[in-house]
Amino acid sequence: MGSPIDTWEGATAVFTGAHSGFSIAVSLLVMVVLCVAPIVYSASHEKEQYNKHS
Amino acid sequence: MTAEEATALTAKLDALQKAHDMAGTINMEIFYWWCIALMVAIHAGFLAYEMGASRTKNVLASGVKNILAFAFIIPTMFLFGWWIYGAMPNGFIPIAATDFLPWDDNMGPNLSDNATGIFWAAFTLFSATTASIFSGAVLERIRMSGFIMLAVLLGSVVWIWAASWGWHPDGWMLKQLGYHDVGAAGVVHTIAGFFALGVLINLGPRVGKYAADGTPLPLLPHNMPLTLVGLMLIIVGFFGFLGGCIIYNNGGQWTNIYGQQTTLSAFAFNTLMGFSGGIIGAYWKTRDPFWMMSGALAGIFAAAAALDVLYPPVAFIVGIIGGIIVPMAGNWLERRGVDDAVGAWAVHGVGGFWGVLVAGIFASGYPNMGDAPAISFLGQLTGAVVCAAFGFSTGFAASYLLKLAGLLRVPDNVQMVGLDKVKVPSKSYPEFLSPAE
């Protein structure tokens, strides 16, 4: 992470981790996990709650 | 003029040209920025609409569901939805679309690219609209986990895939059929409405919706005025949505999504005419304010595919027809045992289908750009059927798998207790419902 540039002159991609394949890959992977995990949690919470009310 | 003066003048002209270009680029960003902001009103509207249409015991669960659909669409459109749009214009075999991949230099703050982020955001709001359309149909009995998966499938895969066919400059529906759908009647509304229908068949009706002999029973909304205000907010948001469907060209005339010249004036004439016709048609047919406001949406969708070329009185007439057929379709579906809680299939599925046909009936013969054939009724009919079939089949198949996995329907006994009590840690109307607390 950190700055991908050392000057604003001629800068293009300025986002954190730009030009670093590793940094981008880790960010994307964590993003995928954080999208899937709440759905799994929701399914598990529903099951628990439905059992409680049945 | 001396050589030095000529050089200085040229430098000044270059600087002026650069300033003009940058002003145009920034104007473009500003235009879409506010379209996106207006589109958020669609979701405020759907939120109010769905919560109002729910019974008191389910009102917050309906709200949570709607909010989550919006939230999950954003990262998934970044991860894969945007790429699908760029990669799938030929059908099911992807083409190279590296600019659309989430790790591309354009997919983040980039000082040499003022366009990708703003267009990605506009498309993401279109995606969230499809998920919200679906959300209302299934309220009060769908499991949250299953709903999120289906909303992501519709919003970040199915509609955007069809948009690649019918909106992308190389889309096969445009190139082979001459498909014309500038306001997304087919690629957003027909797709979402028929996806919802596919899910509804597997999901089944809410407990208490039908008598033992199959007669539909009224499950009344707990707050019809909130639903009506929600519908009007959706209309407000659609001005942003339709603005997002037009292309700002720096220094040139506006074009529609297909590169044909148009104006915002054209969109303004016909959006308002369709809106008005839809309300009047639904009033004529039902006198019911719920259907009048739904008719307003259907009227806009009726004109949407050909917003750029319809004569405004024609937009009014097709809007009236949309306002009449949509409640008929909703009641027809209800009598067949399919519980579409907000009429999503009727308003968006049937209303959008009608809008695509309208372009075929009234705009046949208008030329397309490049080697795409002219607009034709057969091309529009085929496009509408493709959108309906793609939406229905994906919704049906995915919900069938979720049903097999036990992730689709809330158990009947839980529906009777109410989803808020079982799933939501806060109360909607605490004093009204629990005066002793």
Task: Describe the protein's architecture and organization.
The complex is a heterodimer of chains A (54) and B (437). Chain A is an all-alpha fold and 54 residues long. In chain A, 59% of the residues lie in helices and 0% in strands. Chain A has one helix and no strands. The longest helix of chain A is centred in the last third of the chain and has 32 residues, at 21-52. In chain B, a hairpin with a 7-residue loop joins strand 1 (246-247) and strand 2 (255-256). The longest helix of chain B has 51 residues, at 3-53. By secondary structure, chain B is mainly alpha-helical. Chain B has one domain: Ammonium transporter AmtB like domains (Ammonium transporter fold, Orthogonal Bundle), CATH 1.10.3430.10. Chain B has a two-stranded antiparallel ribbon with strand order 1-2. Chain B is globular. In chain B, helix 2 packs across helix 3, helix 7 packs antiparallel against helix 8 (264-286) and helix 10 runs antiparallel to helix 11 (344-362). Chain B starts with a helix and ends with a helix. Classes of the chains: A mainly alpha (54), B mainly alpha (437). At the A-B interface, helix 1 of A face helix 2, helix 4, helix 13 and helix 14 of B.
Point out poorly predicted stretches of chain B: none
- Given as residue ranges, the uncertain stretches of chain A (5+ residues, pLDDT < 50) are none
Q: Percent helix among the residues of chain A?
A: 55-70%
Shape of chain A: rod-shaped
Largest interface: A-B, 27 and 30 residues
> How many beta strands in the DSSP annotation of chain A?
0
Q: Structural class of the helices, strands and pairings of chain A?
A: mainly alpha
Average pLDDT number of chain A = 92
Q: What's the helix count of chain B?
A: 15
| Portion in beta strands of chain A | under 5%
Can you give the mean pLDDT of chain B? Answer: 95
CATH C-level label of chain B: Mainly Alpha
How much is the radius of gyration of chain A in Å? 20 Å
Number of strands of chain B: 2
Distance from N terminus to C terminus of chain B (CA atoms, Å) equals 89 Å
SSE pattern of chain B: HHHHHHHEEHHHHHHHH
- From the spread of the alpha carbons, the general shape of chain B counts as globular
